[in-house]
Amino acid sequence: MLAFFLRRLGVMALTMLCLTFVVFYLVNLEPNLRKLAISQTEMHASDEHIESWLTRNGYRRPFLERYAAWIGVWPKKPNIDAETGKQVSRFTYCEEPSVVVYAGVIEGDFGCSTKFKTKVAEKLLPALRATGLLMFWVMATMVPVALFLGILSGMREGSKLDRALSVVSIVTTSTPEYVSGVVLTIIFGTWLGWLNGSAASATGDGITFYNFTLPVITPAIYGMGYIARMTRASMVEVMTAQYIRTARLKGLGFYAVVLKHALRNALIAPFTVIMLQFPWLLTGVVIVEVMFRYQGFGLALVDAAGNNDIDLMLSCSLVSVLLVLVTQLISDVGYAFLNPRIRVQ
Questions:
Q1: What are the Cα distances from residue 272, in Å, to 222, 267, 284, 332?
Q2: Widest CA span of the chain, in angstroms?
């Protein structure tokens, strides 16, 4: 098991290195750098002024040097004041050092947000906490209900209840978040009047029905049908196995057979689907957070992309890659606990 973990950690580190290199290259393309320079200077700045700003802030240094400095394995150099010739910090509002230092991701320095005029960590960490809270309640709502519906449907294969639950699962899975979000807003806002026109941000005026409950319900409805269908298919397969028939012939009750023999094996496939919901939620909440103005990771990512906030975009991509790799690792290890026949090699 230890060797397995070490190998997977090595693969995770290599994967993160490759993906961050690709993202770093894409966000540092010339059109993005020019848009960043224009947003930080003037909309009608001359080419000489734009080039001067990019050179002064280190964006014209060699690409590999900038990437290594962002990671933290290459010293980050300050700017040189053209008038005095002294070393000055790159962005004063981030209190960046005015000396040559190692300050990158490895050292816990994620850079400076040019959009929000603050350190990336001061913007990203509160956004991750808000999205983490949202994802927790989405999973706490979605997973138990989906498993219950899937198990109930699989136990009664071919019945009217099974067909009804299958139709509901298909409808919810085929409805995107931006559609269900609008529908829920119309139902609770226009028809029931529960929203009272309140669209305040979750971090500004506290948690309300609009800015928290609806963002929880919207992605939960979308993912609920998929998990329920996978659980039903797995449950149907398990219920026709030979050992289930043997248990029934021994005189065990139907529900005792389901709980003691069928349920554990039936949860192996849904477990993988549930673990895959975490990366999906991180990208799916982008639509939900923008729609309901929920101040989380998704909204921060959209703001960063729309304003060419390079350091914030890089940090968001790093978090996304890390979440995908960690959930895959947990999924692989979870197989061995759910099914003793599976061994980590």
A1: 17, 9, 18, 8
A2: 92
Displacement of CA 167 from its chain's centroid (Å)? 29
- Closest by CA to 333, choosing from 341, 344, 323, 324, is 344
Instruction: Look at strands 79-80 and 87-88 and give their pairing.
Output: antiparallel
Sequence-ordered strand ranges (E) for the chain: 79-80, 87-88, 112-113, 118-119
Domain ranges across the chain: 2-117, 121-338
Q: What is the DSSP string of 278-302?
A: HHHHHHHHHHHHHHHT--SHHHHHH
The label of the residue with tokens 């995107």 reads 176
- More confident: 83 or 41: 41
Q: Which two tokens stand for residue 205?
A: 């005026």
Q: How far is CA 215 from CA 31, 84, 179, 185, 311, in A?
A: 34, 53, 13, 10, 27
Q: Of 275, 142, 292, 168, which Cα lies nearest the Cα of 229?
A: 168
Cα(62)–Cα(59) distance, integer angstroms: 8
The DSSP secondary-structure symbol of 77 reads P
The CATH code for residues 121-338 is: 1.10.3720.10
Name the amino acid, one letter, at 246.
Answer: T
pLDDT for 232-265, tens place per residue? 888 888 877 887 778 777 777 767 777 777 777 7
